[in-house]
Amino acid sequence: MGNRYFTGCAVWAFKDWMGEFYPQGSKAGDFLRLYGERMTTVEGNTTFYSMPDARTIERWADTMPPGFRFCPKLPKVFSHQGKLLPHLDAAQRFMETLSPLGDRLGPVFLQLPPTYRPAQGADLRDFLTQWPRQRYPIAVEVRHLEWFAAPIANRLNQVLTELGVGRVLLDTRPIYNGLENADEDPQLGSERRKPQVPLQPVVTAPFTIIRYISHPSFDLNDPYLAEWTPRIAQWLAAGTKVYFFAHCPQEVKSPRVAQAMYHRLQQAGVDLPDLPWDVCLKQEAEVSAASAQLSLF
């Protein structure tokens, strides 16, 4: 079942991970390799802001390990410029540039801006209908609150299910529930605030993408991770591929959240291999113990 559950973060190039997630003194040029040795997928947030050139993609392909999945976000020049359909050809050409990734290319996701409303639903349906879904599986993240209200939410899920398109499940509850005043806002100082939208955990495709926005206070995530555990286990048992991405307003804490979710699934009896990061930690501990033993002689 290990090849059906993928976990990771939104980025790999984060220098403040050195000392815990990455070894102290790691070079920036090694971050992708180190990340791939510890997690099994990454949310390709970088492609949302700029389109990488061919040389960069070839370097990624050479660095990402077998079994790893890169899940690119469609560039905002396609998703945040009004209607989607006029950008269909350019968006497909963008996906072609990622072809050197081969089987390391995971589902792509289309993040719609809060201004994209259900009134534009025909545009979304036409875009997804013409998208090469078999070659490039795609998931959609909606943000306007009208998408979450019945009967529109039901219709959206129906269309996505008919097309085999995933629905990105954005869980921002940990950073909003219990928030009484602005001084307690866990997103203070964060460059990109996440929207407060309802969680509607439905599966509309053979895969699903979960974007879990964790609270910086680690223990406050416990009830939410506990809630996700049986749900994810059930989806995996049914054959659904699950991509779980841990975010945090304090990005330095994201890897630990991804690890905690992984451990919960293992403890719940889900048949998963050891998380690569856990293997690295074990190896590092063995090397440290061996070094300490040698120092006694």
What summary fits the major beta sheet? Answer: 6 strands, parallel
Order of helices and strands: EHEHHEHHEHEHEEHEHEHH
Cα distance spanning the termini? 45 Å
| Residue windows where pLDDT falls under 50 for at least 5 positions | none
Total helices: the number is 11
Q: What is the number of E strands?
A: 9
Percent range of helical residues:
25-40%
**What is the mean pLDDT?**
92
Name the strands of the widest sheet in spatial order: 3-2-1-9-8-7
Shape: globular
Helix and strand composition category: alpha/beta
Which percent range describes the beta-strand content?
5-15%
Computed CA radius of gyration, to the nearest angstrom: 20 Å
How would you characterize the overall build of this protein?
- The protein has helices at residues 31-36, 46-49, 54-63, 76-79, 88-97, 121-130, 152-163, 173-176, 222-237, 254-267, 276-294, and strands at residues 5-9, 41-44, 69-72, 108-111, 138-141, 166-167, 169-171, 207-213, 241-247.
- The mean pLDDT is 92.
- The protein starts with a strand and ends with a helix.
- Helix 6 (121-130) packs parallel to helix 7 (152-163) and helix 9 packs across helix 10.
- It is globular, with a radius of gyration of 20 Å.
- Strand 8 (207-213), helix 9 and strand 9 (241-247) form a beta-alpha-beta unit.
- With 297 residues, the protein is an alpha/beta fold.
- The protein is built from eleven helices and nine strands.
- A six-stranded parallel beta sheet has the order 3-2-1-9-8-7. It has a three-stranded parallel beta sheet with strand order 4-5-6, with helices on one face.
